[in-house]
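dihydropyrimidine dehydrogenase (NADP(+)) (Arachis duranensis), 428 aa
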Amino acid sequence: MASLSLTQIRTGNSASGFSLNCRGKVQARPCRVGFRVFASENGNNKASSEPDLSVTVNGLKMANPFVIGSGPPGTNYTVMKKAFDEGWGAVIAKTVSLDAAKVINVTPRYARLRAGANGSALGQIIGWENIELISDRPLETMLKEFKQLKEEYPDRILIASIMEEYNKVAWEELIDRVEQTGVDAIEVNFSCPHGMPERKMGAAVGQDCALLEEVCGWINSKATVPVWAKMTPNITDISQPARVALQSGCEGVAAINTIMSVMGINLNTLRPEPCVEGYSTPGGYSAKAVHPIALGKVMSIAKMMKSEFDMDKYSLSGIGGVETGGDAAEFILLGANTVQVCTGVMMHGYGLVKKLCDELKDFMRKHNFTSIEDFRGASLQYFTTHTDLVQRQQEAIRQRKAIKKGLQSDKDWTGDGFVKESESMVSN
C-alpha cells in the first residue's frame, strides 16, 4: 500500500458527531481518518510463511504493534530516537502540558516489589511503583524535539501525550501547539493516579464521566489528528469512561494506566516507600504483577466496544505488565490493536522490542496465524457469566455420563479394545 500523508486523508470531526443507538451500535459521522483499523494488506495471504506483524491503526501504519508507552522511556529526543532505531512500531512521548513550571518531581520517586520477601534485594522485580509526575521539561523544548524527530523519521509514528487543567482554552492551545510539530496522533492522559487531581487533571477526569465527556468534546472539536483516550483502572467499571470517550469523538482508547498503590512499609524505619524526607504518597503501580488486572480491564472494554461500536473504525491499545511476546499476544487475543510497554523498557532496555517481535512470531507460527488480525479478539468469545459456566459444566457432566453409560451397554458388540479407548477419552 502506498504511503499517504495523513493531512490528505483527515476530515473534520466534532464531539457532536457521535450518538448512542441503544438498539444497535454507535453510529459515527466521518472522522479524522479515512482508513479502517486493520492488519497489513498481506494479512490474508495464507501462502506467506513468515508472520506479518505490521498493523494500520486509525490510519497510522506501524511495522509492528509494539508501542513505547508514555513515561520515562519517552522523556526526550535521545531516548525516543533510540526507540525508533531499535524498531518500535510507535513512540508515545512523556505527557506534556502548557506550564511545566508547575510540575515539580521529587527523589526518590520509584519503589520496587520483588518476588522474594518484601525489601529483598535479590528477588525478581514483579512490581514497580512511581510517584513521578508528567514532564517537567519546558513545553517549547519538547515541541522542538517532536518536530526534529518527525523530520528525521517521517515514516515513523510519533504520538504526543497531553494533559491539562479544566480549561477549554488551555486544552485548545496545547492541541494546536503539539499538532504544529507534525505528530501523528494524540493520546490524552485521563488516567495518571497522582496527576495533580486538585487541578482536575489526570485520573480526576477519567473517573468522572460527565467531566470526561465535556473535556473530550473540547479536544475532539479541536484536534485534526487521531485521538486516543488513556483510561484509568482506578474505577469500578472501566468500560463506562471508555464508552464516553468513544462517543465523544475519540478514535481509540488505551488501557490501563498505573494502579493506585502503596508499595510497602520499611519494617526497620516504619516509613512508607518510596521515602522522601521520611514521608511518601500513594503512587502508580505497574510491571508484571499488574498484568492479570490489565487483561481483565481490557477484556471489559473490548466486549463493550464489540457490542456497541464498529470495531473497524475504533482502536484499543493494551497496556500492563508486558515483558514477553506471550504477554502481548494475550492483549491482542482480547481485542487490542496495539500493545504498549513502559515499565518493561525501563527494566529491560529498548532492545526488548526484538525479543517481543520474535516471541510473538513464534506464537503466530505455532497457530498458523499470518497476521495480527488473524487472532485479534479470538479469545473474547470464551468469556461468559458464572451462571453460564455452571450450566455448561452440568451439561458436560451429563453428556459424559450418558456416553459412558452407552459405551458400557454396547460392550458386547463394540469390543473391549474400543470400549477401553473410548472410556479413556471420556475420563480425560
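The chain has 13 helices and 19 strands. Confidence is low (pLDDT under 50) at residues 1-30, 41-47. ok done for today
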